[in-house]
Here is the input.
Amino acid sequence: MVLLAAAICTKNGKALVSRQFVEMTRARIEGLLASFPKLIGSGSRQHTFIETESVRYVYQPMDKLYMVLITTKASNILEDLETLRLFSRVIPEYCKTVEEKEINEHCFELLFAFDEIVALGYRENVNLAQIRTFTDMDSHEEKVYKAMRETQEKEAKQKMLERAEEIRKSKIQADKGFYKGSSHYSGGFGSSSNMSSNTYSTSTYDTPSYDSHASNYSSNLSSSTLNSSKPNKAMKLGSNKDVLPAFIEQQIKQTLPSSPASSSSTAFSSTPAINTEKVHLKVDEKISLTCGKDGGVQNLEVLGVLSVHIGTEEEARVKIGLRNNDNRNLQIQTNPNIDKNLFKNNSVIALKDQTKSFPIGTDVGVLKWRFQTNEESEIPLTINCWPSETRNGCEVSIEYELQKLNLELNNVSIVVPLPSNQAPVVKNCDGDFQYEKYKNCIIWRIPMIDQTNSTGSFEFTVNGHANEFFPVNVNFVSSKPYCDIQPETVSHADNSSQSLKFSVESTFSVDRYEIV
Here is the structure.
């Protein structure tokens, strides 16, 4: 085939991006594209072509735009259609939506990708993953060079620090020697007080020179110390230390697996702080879940802790009334200093010794509970990962379903491992996604999951085998507890009718959540 030009144009024939692969004037390509809408008329076929006396248009509608290939009439129409499909798949790789504004913002990326598909009018034997790799322009030699440069900068910085330490020690030694010598000198000066007036006047005459010498020395010493404490831009190596070369970053991230606890702490930091009263109660629950990729729960465990934070001594002697509406078989344990009988009979937490009070200014755990089961109905968020191997790779479909509709999960991230050095082609995504090249994974992010969006799906295609997409790790945080145990009232220990203001902070987060 001989491909003359590839263009993205509006339905009125306005060219947004056009790449000519043979010698062609601007007036000719604009004329060909301007006559294109008149030729197609009102046709609405998905893959169509139109021939004129000199050229053939092969096009595909994309919402309000057209992807158009202009070829010679002697070209192979089957090859033209296959090339058109590849061009159409390239556009979503660089543009989130197929709109005029988005095309204009990423026009150069699209032109570079077009050049990888066609060279001098002939189709190159490349696929979408190779186009992504070529346009990224990764260089192994560049990574090695940056790694070596980073190492040299670190060595130079270390030598600089060692030299600075040596200078500091030498100044300290010189300072000690100076004061030791000046004390002997002043002693000799004081012993001359019994001399004649002539000798005394001579000594008093020498005093200003001694003082000026000492002041000059101390000023020089202080100025040199200040100068050494100031940053020296001429000796500043590795100032861009926060930028880690990609080569080293890849090795570190492949060596150290991502920790769910760190992800959980990141999720906690993004939750807004609440207003706390002098009596602040915290309900903290963590879930550990391991499911099989073919279904079934290997282990589901939820651990909860209720802690009390007292701000002042006036509120240190309190009783806490709980509401326990959870009908599941929970294992509940109280702190040894808590009155177990009072809690068992009345669901009230109070100290055994009524004369004592809760510690002030620190979190004190007063109640723990544990729930463990193998029932699939108790899973808060089910994940179904379904890889299907095809001739062109592996199509992966992932679905989530919120089974506990009373929960509201925030900052949900689903991490799917990928085969090394493979960029996925995303077909459908409810939410956002992020491809981590050096971690060899793709992260599906949903800001919030509740009963209004209790289901969602994510589909992508990549080369690989079905068993390479596991384990799938999930992380989220919720301000609503999993177990229905909540503080209801807080009153003074001596007077149950005297209610106290209190605040409650509930957190339900992930300790481990994986599908293996």
Notes: The longest strand covers residues 297-310. The radius of gyration is 37 Å. Residues 179-245, 252-271 have pLDDT under 50 and may be disordered.
